[in-house]
Design brief:
- GO terms for molecular function: transmembrane transporter activity.
- Keywords: Membrane, Transmembrane, Transmembrane helix.
- This is 22 member 18.
- With 439 residues, this protein is mostly helical.
- The protein has a single domain, classed as Growth Hormone, Chain: A, CATH 1.20.1250.
- It is 81% helix and 0% strand.
- The protein has 15 helices and no strands.
- The longest helix is centred in the first third of the chain and has 53 residues.
- It starts with 9 loop residues before the first helix and ends with a helix.
């Protein structure tokens, strides 16, 4: 059994601890910088498309989200391959450098064309992918340890993401829609420096023996085409493709919900940027605490497949709750904000369990040297899902004459329940096939 970070010899253990702590800091900064923009973006789109009616604003916002995710769909597998080719340190520096460039362009976007153009460098904005690959490499074959490490990586992200929406919304409410992007440039450049100074130059952070090191050094590097072909072979493995299918369809569902909700809260309930930011930050805070203290016990008690199933059911239940809040309340008072925040917490926890459960299973189904490529595939599929998701979400939202969420959340809940059935059927089939082979 592979050792966890706490079980490694002292010298190696100190190295692992340093790598993880620097990665945590980078992900805190990444979460802060990214989430600073979330409550601001709908208002920035509205400002730059002045004169557009509500329907045009909704479609423009949806197209922006789809374009962003189309760019990331191209970039995510490239970063996964890049990670396996040039190592953690260099990949991390490239990722945060591209992120800083994107925010610098966003801070200068004075029309919609420039706003769309600012999303192009996000092709390489895959910091969480690099962090996940680092955590998976350190923990080896121990599912519980991997779930704990991935959960804590998510905790690191949500620490920054808890502060980000509230701070971004507050800054936007003061009248400057670009100040948060300027802060994000500085935060991203700090991560570039930390990556260069403290992260290892390969994915071998645990210190393999000399024989294994020499073997790896003597292995010829795959060409880019060979690496792409190998990633497709990984995706088609019986133990992997059903999980990636759930990632893809589940990502479409998450994107439909995530696009329609802020539009509805902004247009129907007249939420201010600060109120939208508070509801987002509340759910992030709870996820941070959950990932730090509850993820490992949950993984041990129900297993990663049970976590994924719980997440799908939880999302299916909470979606209609959002629709009911929008349909039956009015105004944007404190009670309504609290209701939205509570529903957001429960929905986000469900999505967190789903994502961690799936990633724990997929990273455990491949070799360590394939984990970067595998995670690149996951992020690619998630971004691919978010190309279709915003358009589907805004289309269903436009069908509602009253601006309610029932069409969107009904479709999302139905899809999540069907995914749960599919996941149970395919994982049961895989296990049965494995037992037959053993016999």
């Amino acid at each position: 059994m592979a050792t966890s970070a706490s079980d490694t010899p002292s010298a190696s253990g100190r190295n692992v601890d340093m790598v993880l702590w620097v990665t945590y800091i980078n992900i805190v900064l990444y979460g802060l910088c990214f989430q600073l923009q979330r409550p601001v973006e709908p208002f920035l789109v509205k400002s730059l498309s002045e004169g557009s009616d509500s329907a045009e604003f909704t479609q423009t916002y949806g197209r922006l989200q789809s374009f962003f995710n189309a760019v990331q769909t191209i970039g995510s597998p490239l970063v996964g391959i890049l990670l396996d080719q040039i190592g953690i340190r260099n990949a991390s520096a490239v990722v945060f450098g591209a992120t800083a460039l994107s925010y610098a362009m966003l801070a200068s976007a004075t029309d919609m064309n420039l706003l769309f153009l600012s999303k192009v460098p996000t092709m390489l904005q895959a910091a969480f992918l690099v962090a996940q690959a680092t955590a998976a490499n350190v923990t080896g074959d121990d599912n519980a340890a991997r779930a704990r490490a991935l959960g804590r990586m998510t905790t690191a992200y949500t620490i920054g993401a808890t502060v980000g929406p509230a701070l971004g919304g507050h800054l936007a409410s003061m009248g400057d829609l670009y100040f948060s992007a300027k802060i994000a440039v500085v935060g991203s450049l700090i991560s570039v420096v930390l990556s260069i100074l403290f992260l290892p130059n390969s994915t071998n952070v645990k210190g393999d023996d000399d024989t294994e090191k020499k073997t790896k050094e003597n292995e010829p590097k795959k060409s880019f085409l060979a690496a792409v072909q190998h990633s497709l072979e990984i995706a088609m493995r019986p133990a992997v493709w059903p999980l990636l299918t759930v990632k893809l369809v589940g990502g479409i569902v998450a994107s439909m919900h995530g696009t329609a909700l802020p539009i509805t809260l902004t247009e129907k309930l007249q939420f201010e940027p600060s109120q939208l930011g508070i509801s987002m930050s509340t759910s992030m805070f709870v996820i941070a605490a959950f990932g730090a203290f509850c993820m490992a016990p949950l993984a041990r008690s129900v297993g990663p497949d049970g976590m994924a199933s719980m997440g799908l059911v939880g999302r299916a239940l909470m979606g209609p709750v959002f629709a009911a809040i929008v349909a039956f309340v009015s105004g944007n008072g404190q009670i309504v904000v609290m209701q939205v925040a509570l529903a957001s917490v429960l929905h986000a926890l469900s999505s967190h369990c789903l994502a961690t459960g799936l990633t724990t299973q997929t990273t455990g189904a491949v070799n360590k040297e394939e984990q970067g490529t595998l995670l690149g595939l996951e992020h690619c599929l998630f971004s691919l899902a978010r190309i279709a998701g915003p358009t589907l979400g805004t289309t269903l939202l436009s069908w509602s004459k009253t601006g309610s969420l029932w069409y969107v959340e009904g479709a999302c809940a139905s899809a999540d329940l069907l995914l749960n059935i599919f996941l149970f059927a395919t994982t049961s089939s895989t296990r049965l096939g494995g037992k037959l082979k053993q016999n």
